[in-house]
Amino acid sequence: MIMQRLTLISALFFLFFIKVNPVWANQEKPLIIGTYDLPPHLTLSGEDKKIKGALVDYLEKEVFNDVGLKIQWTYQPFSRLVAEAKKQKIDVIGFIAKNKEREEFLDFPDLPTFSTYSALIFRSANAPMTLDKELIHNLVIGHTQGSIVPEYLLNKKVKFQFLAGEHALERNLEKLNLKRLDAVFVPTLSHAEFVIKNTPFRNELKVVPIQEGKIDLYVALSKKLDKNIKAKILKKLNQSSGKYSLYLQKTSREEQRGLLKQLTFNSPFVRRY
């Protein structure tokens, strides 16, 4: 009888401890980090299917190194990843730009992790030296489904054609090379430059930065994530926001070549050309 009472008291104490210590209670539940194809920031190894890139190194060493939770990385096409985040099935997502729609289901740190420029990719024969408003009018532009469409392009007479699924950018570049598109929009300049180097027709395409296309990229958190865990991660993201560029710079040329080979291994270009 005494043992039964002690067992009951222990169980009640355990439940109370979990209730007042939500971080400890969630230790067995991994923190799900959503990523997508964005080399050199994020990519999936062709050999061991491991998620790699500058953002992975940064998050593991600067942000999640002492959160006290198990980390589970997931890798999906961008449009599916955003849909999963809306359903609160993803705890953390990166990289992602901020807009009003996304702020309804994601919390963003005060400071972006990375700031860059967007770009348009043209066929070299039709590529302008610089972009002006008149040149963009009436263009048919390829883009990735679910990705942000900046207001400065919405305000112009632009027709977008969206692709979903894996390797959307590479497939859009293929359409561009076949003259089915006038240009391809890429939100992140470094991603555009990185991928285009590995296309079989790279000499026939040109990346043109959009000077008014500055974009801030964030690591964002689900609104349903435990508030104590969220506060800790947001604090670390804000404190370390200036360090990400160092991780990107440390990604050596040899490592980038290795990522490119892995990207090529899975690319639709390999199957068709």
Structure notes:
By secondary structure, this protein is an alpha/beta fold. It folds into two domains: 20-114 and 217-267, Periplasmic binding protein-like II (D-Maltodextrin-Binding Protein, domain 2, 3-Layer(aba) Sandwich), CATH 3.40.190; 116-215, D-Maltodextrin-Binding Protein, domain 2. Helix content is 39%, strand content 23%. It contains twelve helices and eleven strands. The strands form two sheets. Strands 1, 4, 5, 6, 7, 8, 9, 10 and 11 form a nine-stranded mixed beta sheet that branches. A two-stranded antiparallel sheet has the order 2-3. A hairpin with a 6-residue loop joins strand 2 and strand 3. Helix 3 (54-63) packs across helix 10. The longest helix is centred in the N-terminal third of the chain and has 19 residues, at 2-20. The protein starts with a helix and ends with a helix.
Structure summary, number of beta strands: 11
**CATH fold annotation of the largest domain:** D-Maltodextrin-Binding Protein, domain 2
CATH architecture of the largest domain: 3-Layer(aba) Sandwich
Residue-averaged pLDDT, rounded? 81
Alpha-carbon Rg, integer: 22 Å
Identify the CATH homologous superfamily of the largest domain. Answer: Periplasmic binding protein-like II
* Sheet of most strands: 9 strands, mixed
| Fraction of helical residues | 25-40%
Structural class: alpha/beta
Our count of helices gives: 12
Order of helices and strands: HHEEEHEHEEEHEHEHEHEHHHH
How many structural domains can be distinguished in the coordinates? 2
CATH class of the largest domain: Alpha Beta
- Uncertain residue ranges: 11-27, 263-273
Measured distance between first and last alpha carbons: 77 Å
Question: What percent strand?
Answer: 15-25%
- Bulk shape: globular
Task: Identify the quaternary structure here.
Answer: single chain
